[in-house]
Amino acid sequence: MIPGADDIGPPREVADEPPPFLGTWRRVYVFVLCYLAVVIFGFWVFERAVSG
Amino acid sequence: MRPLDWAVMVAWLVFIVSYGVWRGRGSSTTGKYLLAGKTMPWYAMGLSIMATQASAITFISTTGQSYVDGMRFVQFYFGLPVAMVILCATAVPIFHRARVYTAYEYLERRFDAKTRALVSVIFLIQRGAAAGLALYAPAVVLSVILGWPDRLTIASMGVLVVLYTAWGGIKAVTWTDVQQMGLIFAALILALVMAVVLLPHGVSFRDAVSLAGAMGRLNPVVLHFDWNDRYNLWSGLIGGSFLALAYFGCDQSQVQRYLTGRSIAQSRLSLIFNAMAKVPMQFFILFIGAMVFVFFVFQKPPVLFHPVEEKHIEANPGYGDVQARFSTAFEARRQAALDYVGARHNGDAAREQDSAVRYRDAEKQLEAAHHAGERLVGPSFNDTNFIFVSFVTRWLPTGIVGLIIAVIFSAAMSSTSGEINSLATVTVIDIYKRHVRANAPDAHYVLASRLATVFWGFYAVSFAHFAHNFGALIEAVNMVGSLFYGGLLGVFVLAFFFRRVGANGAFYGVLAGEAAIFAANRFTAISFLWYNVIGCLVVVGVGVAVSARAVMGVGTRSA
C-alpha cells in the first residue's frame, strides 16, 4: 500500500452486489451472450438482404 | 475551414480543457488522483472505457477502411462481449478485492517482483507506442485542412491533453471522456445524415444501401475461415476474444477505468455497457464509411484523397493518363449506378443485373486508376486515412465541419489522456514506488504522478513524429497491441486459474510467449489477431511446464 492512500484502503472482502436487473450476474452474462448471437445473426441477415 | 468552423472547434477545445481542470479539482491524494477515490458510477466508467478505446483513429481510419474494404472489420469486435463476460466474472472482483492501483501490482502478490516489473515494462513499451499513434491521427487531419506541419499539430494536441490530465488525474480524464463521447455520438449521427442528405435527387437511402451492398461494401459477416485473413467471424470471435481479454483485463489504460468504481457491481455494469454498445457502435461507424462510398459514386472524388500529395503528383508526367482513366471510370460507374437505381425503381430485374455488372466493372477500373495514382507518390503510399476527412472538409456545410473536426480532436484527446494517465500510474506505482523510493509521503507520489504524466505526454508526442511510417492507423495500433497482449494475457490467466504455477513459471512463460509472438510475426503470414491466442497459450504451456519441473525437482531432491 502507498502511505496516505486511505482513499482506497487495504485488501479486504468486498460485498458482491446483485445486478440491478435479471436478478443474478449469471443471468446477465447469458443475456449478453444471447444478445451477441442475435446481433451477429442480424448482421448476417442484413448482408444477405442487401448484397447484390 | 471557415471562421465559424474555427469558432466551433476552438470553443469545444477550450470547454473540454476547462471542464477537465474543473472536474479534476481536489485530486490531492494518490487514491483520488489515480483512482478517483473509488467513487465513479458505472455510466461514467463505461463511457470512459469506450472513449479511451475509440480514438480519433476510429473515425478517420475505420470509415476509410469501410470505404475501400467494406464492413467486415466489425467482426474484429465480435469477441469483445465474450471477453467482457469473462472479465466481469473473474478480473473485476479479483482486482477490486485486492484493492490495487494497477493490474500489475496484483502480479507481485500472486507471483513476485520480477514478474510484476517485466509485465509493467511490456505495458509501458506497448502503450507508450499506442499513445503516440493516437496523437498522430488528428495531426493527419490538421495537416490536410490547414497545411500545418504535423509536428506543430502533434505538439499542440499533446500540450492540451497534458494540461488537464496532469492537473486533474483520472477524475478529469473520466468526466471529460463522458462529455466527449456525448459529442462523438451526436456527430456520428450527423455525419451519416449528411452523407445521405447529400445524395443526388432521386437516390433514396434504400437505393444507397443497395448500391453499397451491390459493391460488397456491406459485408459484416464473413463465414469463410482463413488463418491469414484478418477479419472473418472465427478470427473475430476467437482472436478478438483473446485480444479484448488482454486489452480490457491486462492493459492498465482500461483496468484503471473500472478500478475507479464505487463497487464491484458498478465496475461490472460499465463493462456490460461496453459489451452491448461497442459492436453496434462500430457497425454504425463502418456504415457511415459505406455511405460515404455511395456519396462518392455520384460526386466525383479526387484521384487522391490526400490533397498535398495530389498536388505533388500533378507535375508527374504519368498523372494525365491516370486522371483520364480515373475520370472515364468514374463516369462509367456513375452512369451504371444511375441505371441500377432506375432499374430498381422500375422493377426491371434484367436491367438491374446488367447495370450491377457494369457498376462493378467500372469500380475495378476506378480502383486501378486510384492505385496508379497512389503509386505515383510511392510504392507503399496509402490514402485510406484521408477519405473521411476529405468528405467532411470538402462537402459538409460550414459549422458542421468544425463540429466533426472537434470530434476527431475529442476522440484523440480522450484516448491519449487515458493512456498517459495509466502510463503515469504504472510508472509511479509499479516502478518508482516499488523500486526507487518506497516510503515517501503521499504528496510526493501525487507530484511524481503529475510529472510522469507530463513525461508520457512528451513521449507520445515524440513517438507520433515517426507514425507516418505506418499504413492504415487502426491496423497499426491493433498490430502493436497484438505483439504484446498475448504475453500479458497469458500471465494473468496463470495468475487467476493456475494456482500451482509459481513465480519462475510465470516469468519464463511471459518471455517464451513474447518470443513465440515475434517469431510468428517475423516468419509466418498468420494474421495478427491470432498472436494473442498463440502468445497466451505459449505462456500458459511454458508456465505450467516450468512450475511442474520445479515441483518434480524438489520432489526428486526430497527423495
**Count the helices of chain B. How many?**
22
Shape of chain B: globular
Indicate the mean pLDDT of chain B. 88
What's the total count of β strands of chain B?
A: 0
What is the percent of helical residues of chain A?
40-55%
Work out the radius of gyration of chain B. Answer: 25 Å
What does this structure look like?
The complex is a heterodimer of chains A (52) and B (559). Chain A is mostly helical. Chain A has a domain at 20-52. In chain A, 50% of the residues lie in helices and 0% in strands. Chain A has one helix at residues 25-50. The radius of gyration of chain A is 21 Å and the shape is rod-shaped. Chain B is an all-alpha fold. Chain B folds into two domains: 3-296 and 393-431 and 443-558, Up-down Bundle (Sodium/glucose cotransporter), CATH 1.20.1730.10; 307-382. Chain B is built from 22 helices and no strands. In chain B, helix 8 (113-146) runs antiparallel to helix 18 and helix 11 crosses helix 20. Chain B is globular, with a radius of gyration of 25 Å. Classes of the chains: A mainly alpha (52), B mainly alpha (559). At the A-B interface, helix 1 of A face helix 2, helix 5, helix 6, helix 10 and helix 13 of B.
Structure described in brief:
The complex is a heterodimer of chains A (52) and B (559). With 52 residues, chain A is mostly helical.
Tell me the layout of helices and strands.
The complex is a heterodimer of chains A (52) and B (559).
Chain A lengths: L24 H26 L2
Chain B lengths: L2 H21 L6 H6 L6 H12 L2 H14 L9 H11 L1 H8 L4 H8 L2 H34 L3 H48 L7 H10 L18 H18 L1 H8 L4 H35 L8 H8 L4 H28 L2 H29 L9 H9 L4 H37 L5 H23 L8 H25 L5 H21 L7 H28 L1
